[in-house]
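Work package 3, deliverable 3.1, input record:
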Amino acid sequence: MTHAPATQARAKDAEPRHGPDTPLRPSDPKTRGRRENLAGYLFLSPWIAGFLLLTAGPMAASLYFAFTDYNLFDAPRWIGLDDFSEMFGDPRWRHSVRVTLWYVVVGTPVKLLVALGVALLLAQKRRGQAFYRAAFYAPSLIGASVSVAIVWKAIFSDDAIVDRTQKAFGVDVGGWTGDPDLVIYSLVALTVWQFGAPMVIFLAGLKQVPRELYEAADVDGAGRFRQFWNITLPMISPVLFFNVLLETIHSFQIFSSAYIVGGGAGGNACGPADGSMVYTCYLYVQGFENSRMGLASAMAWMLLVAVALVTAVLFRSQKRWVHYEEGGR
Amino acid sequence: MSTQATDITRAPSPKRARRLPGSLAWHLGSLAVLAVILYPVVWVVGGSFKRSEDVVGSLDLFPADPTVSNYTSLADGIADISVSTFFLNSLFLAVGSVAGILISCSLTAYAFARIRFAGRNLLFTLMIGTLLLPYHVLLIPQYVLFRNLDMINTYTPLLLGKYLATEAFFVFLMVQFMRNLPRELDEAARLDGCGHLRIYWSIVLPLCRPALITSAIFTFINAWNDFMGPLIYLNEPSKYTVSLGLKMFVDQEGLADYGGMIAMSLVALLPVLAFFLAFQRHLIDGMATSGLKG
Amino acid sequence: MQQRKGVERRTVLKAAGASLAVTGLGATATACGGGSGSGDGTVTIRYAWWGAEDRARRINKTIDLFEKKYPKIKVKTDFQPYSDFWKKFNTQASGGNPPDVFQNAIGFLRKYDAKNVLLDLEEQVKAGNLRMEGFRAGLDTFGEIDGKLLGVPVGSNSMALVIDKPVYARAGITPEMGWTWDDFDEAMARVRDRTGRAGDSGMYGVMYLYDLYLRQNGKAFFTEDALGFTESDLTRWWTKAEKGVTSGLFADPKKVAQIKPKSALSAELAGSEFTWDNFTVRYTSEGRSEYGLAPIPTTDGKRTGQYLGSLMLSASRRTEHPAEVARFIDFMVHDPEVARIMGYDRGVPATTAQYAAYRPTDPVNKAIAAYEESLVAADVLEPVTPHPNGADICEAAFLRIGEELGLGKRSVADAVEQFFDESKTALGS
């Protein structure tokens, strides 16, 4: 790679244009504009094809299916809002919404609190910091795998470590994976276990907090908690916002761990008494098990609306609690 | 948490006397977290050497009389399909995905970062919009599409999107990276007679190595771990990926080769863990920058 | 990167066959079969079935045998566990690309007949490619719906009570043909009291058992197009079940849920379990005890309501090779060697030739043969209950809602209402 000095290049600007192969120059804006457009769209063509074929087209199709009765065999039949009214009237659907909301509302804050706590711990420059950071991050990479889901199922079943530990404390509720009310907490535990990814982001945010702020606070005699509350938290609020947004959206879409941890063979993939039937699990059951593609599409659009709403609310709330330093990003 | 906060906000402490207990507490805290993190991993390592009936019930992390029979039973495969078939299939998909993502996402990112064309802002907004789009909205229509194209039970549905830059996250990552490259580079190259393709290939791509490596590793790991895609699209056990092979163990009635399942779970994690050990710096930095620039 | 956008005519694809469907990407990574019709006259047929590893190994052997005998026909298999099988089948069938020949069960005949998926094999019988004689105990008509031959039975099975023999011995119970539900309830209590184990694993979710109970009372689970029982029937059945769970007669549903797919019987959570008789093989390989088959309890001391069920082989109406498929089915149900390979994996062989060819020597399979012989001897076998389109969804709902009842997530009234709601949607009535 040669780094051609910019000054040398500029000298050529004065030269006249002499053919189609001439390098593009700012002095010829029209031609350049056209060529740039062409190049831009050429480079973008795979993305455009993908966007039309795999994103926009399918979204339109999905929206259409949501208003039809479609079993894959017969052509979709327009039924208006029937899918939606069936969905809202279906106790299993409402149950899956409750399970998912509970998972999001409990899992995400706990995960982020743990991530922030450990990030604050690791933010101190001490020996072994890099090692711990790496080790804590690792679960985020493997957490979504079937392997870990299998291990999780074993750890949370009768007589395994969790059951025996809670028994030692006098709590005898049995393994969690067979219990319709507890199985969801084994999934919460699984997501909390993967706190490493948001932790790394918190750590990066913490590093950018200028030391002088704390020094000034020290002079003012502010306590440590006050410093955290008044300096650290506002300064890392952009990454906090990013983490909240990302983790919440992710949580809404949990599938494979719920499918493996809660499920099992024998008909019901959604855990004991639908205990771990998160939204996507029920969507999968309706679409692929019961061949209700129309209904499942309606469900998918409800999910999209929910995620969009949450995103919008979070973005609107930004003004109140997220502080962006001018030019400090 | 507030006590931890106190320490971070002013570390390193100027007072020497406080240093030792503080450091001790720090290490104890870190080790405690580490123990919780590592327990499942150590459990699966130990479990893979236990006899099937002891895997869940016994609390000892490592068995008193370790057996390798779980691993030897893996060699027999499952249902006449060798376990290596699953690994080769996963490897093919993962490598194919990496190639697709690197090419298509970098082309896309180059266009967004370095070319001024009409409609760029609009398209960029659309691209960012897909970043937050739940995959499940596309699940059914894409399935119907690939079914109509008779591509069920092929790897095409699992790979096509990777070659068409539908993974907005990686496009975004690369755009961020390319925007920070000095502009003078391509100005100069352009005046030397290079077109965009040359600039992309010989200047921007090599400079983007860190972003490419990060994307490649994440793509590999995601493809390796992917469960829902193969679950929906693949029918034939000889085409199954490792995730589906593991599911075959889970579903297995009658034989209950629990030990074999645990052994395979561990083996399935090894490529991901190996990648992690080799490239953890790239991964963590990639994660961190994605957060800061978001 | 190869993609086949814009292929409009499915017929072109069909002719090009299976290998073309996995062009490019697929072909490089997997050893896929050849085209369904290549130059030398060799045809490839796709055979799909549900089951697990053991069945896979056996079936692969029978296919080797078949390919040796018919070198011009290649067979490509794929299989899934039961719950996934029908999802995959459904989408393939809806896409016009179902397997040429596949395992089938009674609950799906009408469903897929209504969708025009199943081939009427009668033509092939007439053409001499498929022999429908030599079947045991009326099984030859088992796969007939409205005069069409939609499935050919491969092996018969019947509901039974599988018991943990040592446990029953310790409790001092010997179930005999003609024992009643009162006897059964007493036996459950005795198992619980004397062995400290639940009597049964939770029979309240087993549709096929409730069907037998209804049949003993002159009803059945299904009529031709609807449910054959009322809310109050089911309320009675599930009220009894709920009491059984709370009083420990039936295994703790939480534990049963956890150990899936292992069975509660082999996991020693219960002393017995209602299931199909040919599943005993499974318990033996899964558990440590010795398992036996006991008769179904009766209402009047005589009728068990039982019938011989059967897995079947069906062909797709879309197959391009109906004659080859018929010969394949014929081979699988008549060839004696196939019986020796398959054993009782899919039930007691359906044809007399295969039945005679495989005489089990191990106690488990011997017990299965003896059990079915005892049903014939006791003359309790009756015609099968009809299974309307949607029966499969009702069965899954029955199992799921039964489990929810057992786990205490639903009251009896609630469970009954939910089941009737879902069934009515599924059956379209």
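The mean pLDDT of chain C is 86.
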